[in-house]
Amino acid sequence: MDWKTTRIEALLEQALIEDRAASDWTTNLTIDPELRATATILARQEMVVCGLGAIPRFFEIFARLDARPAAHRRYEIVSHPEIFDGVRVHDGQALAVVRHNARALLSCERVILNLIQHLSGIATATRRYVDAIEGTGTRVLDTRKTIPGLRVLEKYAVLSGGGTNHRIDLASGILIKNNHIALGGGVATAVKNALEKRKKGQRVQVEVRTPAELQDALDHGAEAILLDNMTPAQVAASVAQIRAFLAANPGRTIPIEASGGIKLENIRSYAETGVDFISVGALTHSAPAADISMRIVAEE
């Protein structure tokens, strides 16, 4: 993750502005402006860490927003070489140590923790799903069910947890869903138009819910299939249907994805049907925040 891109910079800056970090009255009225302190960011549970690269960026952006002398902007981050995004950590492990002006630490504390907790929660949840289907050959995908404005970071967190990114946005791939089919004249017309008008290299994927819809999509040239809201038994039957189609049409390959109603408790049943991918919206829209704290002590 490049934490210095314009897009990420704007996102982090907006978080500090939203919290009015540079106008922290409580801190400014109670803390000596010359005091320096050490902050230790601690994991309070077993988790997969994600978002550590945001820490220095938050302080650099805060320095621009803060009107105090440059001397108060000096900071040092001490990180353990074995602690980085994507690593599993244990309850009580230090994720990073920051030496900085005490006011800067206090004013940025909540925003830093909010982001790291959110991203680490996603990475931790993703790792659980990935571990649940280990050995099946199926990969866990994320979706576009993300918090507006945070998608690039949330999808990075999925990668940190061992998952695979689906399309990043609507311009990143063609996925003909049931509403496209209903409004686009049916499967045959929608697929035909997509195949004829697509850009070079774009793959046409079609979402189906029944054996009839699946056969219709296969017959009209679908290049990838999304099996939506099916039971494991229905998915297994659909996989067999696709394989029979491929056997009769040598030379074609059709990646198979399952989605809808898939939870940690049942994901292995879906993976064992032979699908290539399983997409899980819960990775980003329902992952609980990881428990992380920041302990700050004055330097002697």
Q: What is the multimeric organization of the chains shown? A: single chain
Fraction of helical residues? 40-55%
Secondary structure tally: strands: 12
CATH architecture descriptor name of the largest domain: Alpha-Beta Barrel
Query: What is the radius of gyration?
Result: 24 Å
Shape: elongated
Give the biggest sheet. Answer: 6 strands, parallel
Alpha carbon gap, first and last residue = 36 Å
Helix/strand-derived category reads alpha/beta
What is the CATH topology assignment of the largest domain? Answer: TIM Barrel
Characterization of the model:
By secondary structure, the protein is α/β, with parallel strands linked by helices. It folds into two domains: 6-123 and 288-298, Aldehyde Oxidoreductase, domain 3, CATH 3.90.1170; 131-285, Aldolase class I (TIM Barrel, Alpha-Beta Barrel), CATH 3.20.20.70. Helices cover 41% and strands 18% of the residues. It is built from eleven helices and twelve strands. The chain has helices spanning 6-18, 25-30, 54-65, 102-132, 151-160, 178-183, 187-197, 211-219, 232-248, 267-271, 282-285, and strands at 36-43, 47-48, 76-78, 88-89, 94-101, 139-141, 174-176, 204-208, 224-228, 256-259, 277-279, 292-298. Strands 6-11-10-9-8-7 form a six-stranded parallel β-sheet. A four-stranded antiparallel β-sheet has the order 3-5-1-12, with helices on one face. Strands 2-4 form a two-stranded antiparallel sheet. Helix 3 runs antiparallel to helix 4 (102-132) and helix 8 (211-219) packs parallel to helix 9 (232-248). The longest helix is centred in the middle third of the chain and has 31 residues, at 102-132. The chain is elongated and about 75 Å long.
